[in-house]
Amino acid sequence: MNAFAGTASYYRRFRPGIPVDLAVLLAHEAPTASPRRLLDIGTGPGLVASALAPYFDEVIAVDSDQAMCAEAEAVLRPALSGGQRLQIRHALAEDFEPPAGWQPHLVTCGRVLHWLDRPRFLDRLAEYVGPGGVLAVFSDRSLWTAESAWQQAARAVVQKFLGERRRAGDGVFGPPGPPYEEVLRASAFGEVTTATIPVRREWSIAEVIGYLYSTSFAASHLFGDRQDAFETALAKALVPFAEGGFLVEDNTFTVLTARRPSSMDR
């Protein structure tokens, strides 16, 4: 099941990227080398790879959705500087194989680890990430889990149209499983550190609608012929919260950086 089928164009236009502070943190955590290599898992339209590309010489961006890969190509390719190398790979994260001898210094998983077979993915990473390599797992709260009054109002409208349970495309969102930190510590990437990075955003009502259509729980096709009715109901619910035409969101990125111990640490 592709939970994000049909969302790629909305994802590119309406999903917020990562803040500068997060990009700087991840670039600082990754080993320095030449060429310096980034592997971005679940790249979507390349939001994370775009923010980190200035710090790396070679970037491979992987996604299981062909439409997302096309959006990433359109975003990332024109922004390359002289000498930088980019590959966009259509593959499952658990099955991805890098070019022979290619070892990433930083592997990023932004808003994606939940969707993966985590033990299988981490075992596969251990096959090609060398000692000292860093895996970064990070996400902010989605509108479904956020707690501000306007976000709760928006979620209530989604639930009125699609049901109380959180959707995941044509299915439902699965259980969370063990804490990510626990999973990482049990893997080859056992040196785990945690950080949080706050972010404040302002949304127009039209942008909230576009954001929702980028999600697995409110993709536009899930509403069928009720899409116009949904947009009308959502706008009506959000207008009382919009100050100066905008809705303010205070969010936080939770960041786990998991390092594979170098040989001297073993």
How would you describe the overall organization of this protein?
The protein has a single domain (8-265), classed as Vaccinia Virus protein VP39 (Rossmann fold), CATH 3.40.50. The protein is 32% helix and 22% strand. It has nine helices and nine strands. The protein has helices at 8-14, 20-29, 47-52, 66-76, 118-128, 149-162, 180-185, 205-213, 227-238; strands at residues 37-41, 58-63, 85-90, 106-110, 134-139, 167-168, 171-172, 191-203, 247-259. The strands form two sheets. It has a seven-stranded mixed beta sheet with strand order 3-2-1-4-5-9-8. The protein has a two-stranded antiparallel sheet with strand order 6-7. Helix 1 (8-14) packs antiparallel against helix 8 and helix 6 runs antiparallel to helix 9 (227-238). The mean pLDDT is 95.
